[in-house]
Amino acid sequence: MLNHAIATLQAWFPAPAVEAHCDGPCGVYDPSSARIAAEAVLSMTKKIVDLDLPAAGDKGGQIAYHNTLSRYIAIKEEQAQIAKDEVLILWTDYFKPVHLEQFPDLHDTFWKAAKLCSACKVEVSLQHAQELMETVQKIHNMFWTSKSRDIPWYTAS
Amino acid sequence: MPLIKPTRLRSSRPRDWLLFLVCRRRRFRVTGRSMLPLLFPGQEVLVDPTAYRRPTGAPRLGDLVIAYHPYRPGLRLIKYVAWHTEAGYFLQGLNPAESSDSREFGPVTREHLLGQVVCRFP
Predict the structure, then answer these.
(1) To 10 degrees, what angle do helices A126-146 and A106-122 make?
(2) Distance of residue B115 Cα from the nearest chain A Cα, in angstroms
(3) Is B75 within 8 Å of A19 when comparing Cβ atoms?
(4) Scanning A34, A96, B64, B75, which has the fewest C-beta atoms within 10 Å of its C-beta?
């Protein structure tokens, strides 16, 4: 009877919330955002490398080539910046000193990831794009290990 | 200094319900996971809002408290008092991997403390 009355009270008059977490809802962080952007960087880098040069004097081909190349470069630039933003958010907002004890190379890993994002913006480097993916995968593993969850790494391509 | 973490929180008793009915206790509902394993999201607690307003009622290490975030007006947090410095009270979550607390926003003053958590509800 009393429990029923309390349950009714709780349902009719919800108590004000107190946050056990003060940075928005838990679980908003997810390294998959960085992974998607890093994959796009790798994909665009491959497309740029594989793009065939048009024949000399082929004006239409030249225009199409430059248009396509420009678009690939713009997407690569944009996605590399997104990957960098996502990585930095995880580094500065999610990971805390307690994680550093668990992953002593945490700072090196994130610093390397951010530098690789910059390199992928400046260069057309398959090696650096691939290294970015590998570093993001390492961050994925750190992140989910810190939450004691086994989330497999996968890529869209 | 070793941390005194709260490991238990009693359930409410008829006296707590009576104090709630005469407005001497306030109900709050916990959101988020940083107070796991002691408090889970959706759990309600009763708070004594006068606990730290008495001259002799200084917060003690290990107290569960409700506090206002020092830089985000109106945002209420539930944490425990990890230690006390001249600058104020250092508050932490029990689940440090998922807690934003004084490690980020620094110690809070006594004026920021809204009250002491005394029990679960019900």
Answers:
(1) 150
(2) 12
(3) yes
(4) B75
